[in-house]
Design goal:
single chain, Rossmann fold, two-stranded antiparallel sheet, alpha/beta, seven-stranded mixed beta sheet, 16S rRNA (Guanine(966)-N(2))-methyltransferase RsmD, RNA_MeTrfase_RsmD
């Protein structure tokens, strides 16, 4: 096991377990990109109900919790990542502030158990971005809410509907962060 750290907030500087660097199935979002992401999201995270899909180590969701999110729901199907997530929940002592769903995102969406969220973070595996599943997540945004998608490639997205618009698209090396907002 290796570790990554929570950047700022209540748990700033605390270490999170992460898979070994040679693991090809789970790659945590880099610290530089996470920092840029949370600098952009800013105060929106305080008090928010957050959904972290394709959660991996939970680094993004734990960062949101550290910066004041009210609750984070993690969706993860990989058994290794689930074990790491559980260990990180316990080491931070946040079991009451998070939910961990052991499922693929598409199966969870079909289950009808999904709620609406203030912020959704989606960081699908770069070898399988599952754009059709990711786009279904937009229906879970509350009015005025934000979804941030991490993805490879250029990834210029047109506005999807009158209600869902692209509000930002930035590159960080090979990674792109595209932000969508539900207008109403």
């Amino acid at each position: 096991m290796t570790s990554i750290r929570v950047i700022a907030g209540k748990y700033g500087g605390r270490k999170l377990d992460a898979p070994k660097p040679n693991n090809t199935r789970t790659k945590p979002m880099g610290e530089r990109i996470r920092n840029a992401l949370f600098n952009r999201v800013g105060s929106e995270v305080r008090g928010a109900y957050v959904l972290d899909v394709f959660a991996g180590t939970g680094a993004v969701g734990f960062e949101a919790l550290s910066r004041g999110a009210a609750h984070v729901t993690f969706i993860e199907r990989d058994k290794i990542a689930q074990n790491i997530l559980r260990k990180n929940m316990v080491s931070l002592g946040v079991e009451n502030d998070v939910s961990l769903v052991y499922s693929s995102v598409s199966t969870w969406l079909k289950s009808g158990k999904a709620e609406n969220y203030d912020i959704i973070f989606a960081d699908p595996p770069y070898h399988d971005t599952q754009f059709s599943t990711v786009l279904k997540l937009l229906s879970l945004l509350k009015p005025g809410a934000l979804m941030v998608l991490s993805h490879p490639g250029r990834g210029e997205f047109p506005n999807l509907t009158k209600e869902i618009v692209v509000v930002d698209n930035r590159s960080y090396g090979n990674a792109f962060l595209t932000s969508f907002r539900r207008e109403r």
